[in-house]
Structure formats: C-alpha cells, structure tokens
Amino acid sequence: MVYLVGHPSFSNSPLVTLIGILEGLYVPLQIREFDPNKIHDIKKIGVYTRFPDELRGLIRVATTLEIGRRVACDIGEPDPERMSPPKVTEFIKNLFSNSSISLSIIHDEQVFAKEYPLFEAVNRAASKIERHQGRIIFLEYQPKEQIEKSLFLVGKGVTYDTGGIDVKIQGSMMGMSRDKCGAAAVAGFMQIVNIIKPKHMRIVGAIGVVRNSVGSNGYVQDELIKARSGVLVRIGNTDAEGRMIMADVLCKCKEMALKAVNPHLYTIATLTGHASLAVGLGYNIVIDNGPAKKEKHAQKLQLMGEEISDPFEVSSLRREDFNSHKGKNIGDDVLQSSNKPSSVMRRGHQSPCAFLMMASGLDKHGSGDANPLKYSHLDIAGSIGDYPDPITGAPVLALANFHLLNIEDCSKGKENQ
C-alpha cells in the first residue's frame, strides 16, 4: 500500500512517487524471457490519498508514462543479439501493429547507398551478416483534427558499437549494447502518442538501427562521402558513427519539415562520452539551434523535465563548434570528427550538434534564413543508466510531459486530450 502524502514544494510529488515505484518494479526483457518466474514478489499496488478525486487521473498518467518508458527499456536494455537491427524492427512492428501509428521500413542496401549514404557507410561492415543488417524505420502519427504542430524525432539506434575500424580499447566496449537508447526513446515516446492520440499534432519518429562492426568491409578514416544533403563529408573517426547514422535521416525529416505546420526537429542519442563528463550521470543535455533558442525551448524542456524527475542541463552552440567541422581541404565541406574521442575534446558534446546541422543542411535554416526550422539535439549518454546499473528510459518522461501531457489537469482526474 502506498500513501501519497504530497509535498507543498513539489506539486507533482504524488505522480513522481508512483512513477518511481513502477520503475523500481521493472524487470529487463531478457530476464523475463529467460525465466518468467524471475519477477518481483509485488503483484498489486494499493494507492491511498487524502484527495480521492485526483487518484484516477494520477494512476492513468503514471501507467501511460510507464508503458512508454518500458518500451524504451525493453529495446534499450537487451544484449546485441536479442535486439539486433532486425529484431528491433520486429519488436516495433509487433508493438504498433493495428495501432494509430503507421510504419515504413527501409532495409535495401541500394536505397541506403542512394538516399542515406552516411548510414550506409556505418552499416557496411555488418551488412554481410544477415542478423546484423541495418534498418531505417519511420513511425508516423496523423491526428484526425487540423494539424497545428509537427514533431520530428530522430533516434540513434546502434545495437552494438565496437568503434568500427577505430576500435574501442581498454574495456570501452562494455555497455555499448545501450548505444541504441536514442532509438529506444523515440519508440517509447511514440507508444505514449499511440495511447494518448493527441489532437492537432503530427508526430514522426525516425529510427536508424545499425551495428557498428569491425571488418574488412568497414568504412575507414579519410573516406569522402557525399551526404543526402549534397555536402561532402570527410571521415575522421569511425567511432563517431552516431552522427553518421542520424545525419541523412535528419535531412529526410528536414525535407518533410519544410512542408509541415509549425515543425520542431529533434535528434536523440547516446552520442558522446563527453556528455556524462560535462554534467554527470543522471542528466540529459539539450542544445537548441537559433530558432528553437528564440522560443526558449531548452529552458522550457528543462522545466518540464524537472517536473517529472527526468532532468536536463542546457548547453549552447558556439561558432567554434561549426568551425571545428569545416572542411580542411579544397572541396571538403564537412569534417565528420577529430580522430580523438569526445571525452578529451574541449567541446566534445556540443560540436556534434553542429556537425548534424551542417551534414543535414539544417544550418541553412537558422533564424536569419527564409525558412527557419526549430531543431534541438538531446545527448542522453549520461542519463540512460550507467551499465550494468538499471536502464532508465530517459528522456521519454520529459518529452511526454513537454509535448503530450498537462500534468495538473491529469492529476485532478480530468481526461487528457
């Protein structure tokens, strides 16, 4: 039995308490599959509060959020074989079968090479192993009502990151099965969308799932690859694969956003080791471009994250972030990365955001351009759970609170949306 006392300084403490209890009762997918008896002894939770009219709404919101968070955990936690790219795809297909979410799946290598060449480069080493072959998955929700807002969320889904030819050393591969948590978060968020069915909002989730393998067929430093946007990218480090698999997908979403109503684009990724060094474990990072910054998006998201106990720190883009990715040779447009790991770089988690903008063409849609587009990059490397500690499902709760929920109304028992 849980008694929700509440707290005068934290208006959402009853909801956060319920979410915390549900999180503590989560059992990883593979453990459930290996032995269905390995679950918690607690089978039911009783909830008591002095304000019973709030209870129904609180339980509804808590369970909705936990369903989405658990989808993210079920994709993000399993080992590289249980959640290989084809198996992530199968999981998502089963999840959204006969739902309000439509699916489109790309697995043809020729399509990758023509339309998503940066993704294709990362997929190259794994492409000859059928069970490791990459996928790009588009999930879309269309409301019945007139659209007033559009969201495009791109998730990094590296099912295992060896570093590629720039192979990780000194035990750094441990936990790299969680390098798919950005993609997992997008799927979890879309499951909450599927439950809530928000009015007036179109939402597109785009997921690149790939294994960054080592092999003679792998991409290497010094390669020149023309991105979907048309810019020429020089490879500096094959362990900077996350930005590679998202850039072309982000470019595709940018093309859709230019025709969309009031769009906002996101990339969500366990992108850099620098992120957890910069802000510590347990915190997401948000970086806005100019149009998003004008609306104080990062500060609003930070507030919504605090409200639901899914906290964000705010970082800023600077001119040196773009300068560090400018081409160094005649004809080069963009340098993918330094050949050093992000953890030793001065602006190791900020500059990849600049690369994503430059490689996708989003840098042509800033505040001073004819068609400005709001864009925010979320680095969740420090917030997903330090392996092998329990996985968190971040930042599903914060994004849901910001875009989909009105917690005050829900906690008072009113129907959401």
From TrEMBL:
Residue spans crossing the bilayer: none
UniProt KW Aminoacyl-tRNA synthetase keyword: no
Keyword terms, alphabetized: Aminopeptidase, Hydrolase, Protease
SUPFAM superfamilies per UniProt: Zn-dependent exopeptidases (SSF53187)
Region (Disordered): 325-347
GO terms (BP aspect): proteolysis
Family matches, as InterPro entries: Leucine_aapep/pepB, Peptidase_M17_C
GO molecular function: aminopeptidase activity
Cross-referenced PROSITE patterns: CYTOSOL_AP
Domain Cytosol aminopeptidase, residue spans: 237-244
Superkingdom, natural source: Eukaryota
Stated family: Belongs to the peptidase M17 family.
Identification of the protein by name: Cytosol aminopeptidase domain-containing protein
Species of the source: Cryptolaemus montrouzieri
